[in-house]
């Protein structure tokens, strides 16, 4: 009974994993070349788990499919995923195709062994030697490419620190999955017990969900935020802002500098900006800064900064160019540290959520 429940959990996790992999390549929000590679990698890992469960000597087709080393493809597709994410120069190299050579060689060798009716190599020591050789080379090949990808991500200067941090975390999760998968294969080879294998398969499913959340959804938000930032930076360079006119007879010089920091340098987009940081930039102390802002705007420092963030978010949500980006990505771009803070501040300022504001702006008569 317990074994039946365990098998049901494994099959259900695999089926949901396949569904999510399909969603990655069909949903516009996630659809990208990088996610195509990641989706294929996860699908291969899930397939390996199923083939391990369905493997049976009495079925020659499943027997053959179970021996084809799909494991060689996992490392390659994951390596390609990291190359695409960091836009590495290796993407233009022709030698990339040779990364698939071990997988092709595996198919050729297994086909020869299964179709051999002369020397009967399939039931010989040679076949056993081939099995051990494949297991060792798969272990080495996967870890070589995954750690190579990790090295390239660390050395990359083409992505933001935030994106690099997410990619390295995803890389670590992938290493954990590969270790689990290898241990499961070793367990099958040296022990008749299925408990350890089933535990590792459940762990594989759990880690797959972590990858889908942290490596896909969260990373996609960061990617969109970076795209928004790059677009705005290019527009700012081609269309310089007109400086805000301030009545200098009633405003302190420090307020003039404050508006310059907000409107020209857009300091409010720094999610870690604090009252102390702002006071240091203006060459004053925190209490004096709070007093000046309160006298000038009748707001606290955080309210003053968030007002700029909300205004910037309004502009992005109103602009059709940014319709393809999520509300959370826009919130991150304008300086909010979390989705909940963004929604709460936006709603407090305008009396509606960012999503409702975007829908309102999309109406023909708005």
Strand content: under 5%
CATH level 1 class label of the largest domain: Mainly Alpha
Please estimate the helix content: over 70%
List segments where confidence is low: pLDDT < 50 over at least 5 consecutive residues: 243-251
Average pLDDT, rounded to a whole number, is 77
Helix count from the secondary structure assignment: 15
Q: What is the strand tally?
A: 0
End-to-end separation:
60 Å
* Rg calc: 28 Å
- Determine the CATH topology of the largest domain: Rhopdopsin 7-helix transmembrane proteins
Overall shape: it is: elongated
The major pleated sheet works out as:
none
Give the second-level CATH assignment, the architecture of the largest domain.
Answer: Up-down Bundle
**Tally of discrete structural domains:** 2
- Overall structural class, as computed from helix and strand content, comes to mainly alpha
Order of helices and strands: HHHHHHHHHHHHHHH
Question: Can you walk me through this structure?
Answer:
- Residues about 245-250 have low confidence and may be disordered.
- The protein folds into 2 domains: about 1-230, Rhopdopsin 7-helix transmembrane proteins; about 240-360, Homeodomain-like (Arc Repressor Mutant, subunit A), CATH 1.10.10.
- It is built from 15 helices and no strands.
- It has about 375 residues and is mainly α.
- The longest helix has about 45 residues, at about 195-240.
- It starts with a helix and ends with a helix.
């Amino acid at each position: 009974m317990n074994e039946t429940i365990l098998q049901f959990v494994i099959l259900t996790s695999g089926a949901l994993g396949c569904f999510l992999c399909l969603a990655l390549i069909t949903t516009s929000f996630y659809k990208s070349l990088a996610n195509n590679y990641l989706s294929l990698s996860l699908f291969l890992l899930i397939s390996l788990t199923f083939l391990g469960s369905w493997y049976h000597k009495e079925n020659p087709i499943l027997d053959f499919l179970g021996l084809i080393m799909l494991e060689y493809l996992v490392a390659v597709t994951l390596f390609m995923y990291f190359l695409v994410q960091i836009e590495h120069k290796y993407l233009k190299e022709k030698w990339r195709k040779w990364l698939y050579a071990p997988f092709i060689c595996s198919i050729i060798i297994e086909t020869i062994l299964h179709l051999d009716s002369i020397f009967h190599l399939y039931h010989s020591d040679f076949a056993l030697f081939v099995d051990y050789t494949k297991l060792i080379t798969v272990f080495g090949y996967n870890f070589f490419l995954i750690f190579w990808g990790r090295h390239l991500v660390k050395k990359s200067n083409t992505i933001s620190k935030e994106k690099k941090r997410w990619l390295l975390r995803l890389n670590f999760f992938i290493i954990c999955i590969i270790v689990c998968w290898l241990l499961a294969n070793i367990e099958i080879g040296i022990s008749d017990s299925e408990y350890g294998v089933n535990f590792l398969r459940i762990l594989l499913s759990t880690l797959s969900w972590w990858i889908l959340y942290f490596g896909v959804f969260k990373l996609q938000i960061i990617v969109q935020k970076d795209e928004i930032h790059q677009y705005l930076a290019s527009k700012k360079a081609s269309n310089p802002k007109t400086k805000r006119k301030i009545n200098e007879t009633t405003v302190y010089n420090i307020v003039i500098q404050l508006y310059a920091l907000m409107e020209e340098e857009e300091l409010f987009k720094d999610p870690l900006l604090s009252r102390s940081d702002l006071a240091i930039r203006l060459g004053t102390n925190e209490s004096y800064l709070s007093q000046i802002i309160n006298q000038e705007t009748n707001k606290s420092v955080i309210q003053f900064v968030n007002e700029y963030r909300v205004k910037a978010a309004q502009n992005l949500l109103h602009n059709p160019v940014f319709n393809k980006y999520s509300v959370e990505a826009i919130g991150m771009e304008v300086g909010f540290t979390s989705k909940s803070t963004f929604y709460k501040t936006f709603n407090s300022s305008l009396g509606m959520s960012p999503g409702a504001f975007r829908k309102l702006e999309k109406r023909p008569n708005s």
